[in-house]
Amino acid sequence: QIQLVESGGGLVQAGGSLRLSCVLSGFRFSINYMRWYRQAPGKQREFVARLVGDASTNYADSVKGRFTISRDNAKNTVYLQMNSLQPEDTAVYYCNVLYLGKDYWGQGTQVTVSS
Question: Are strands 109-114 and 10-13 parallel, antiparallel or unpaired?
Answer without folding.
Answer: parallel
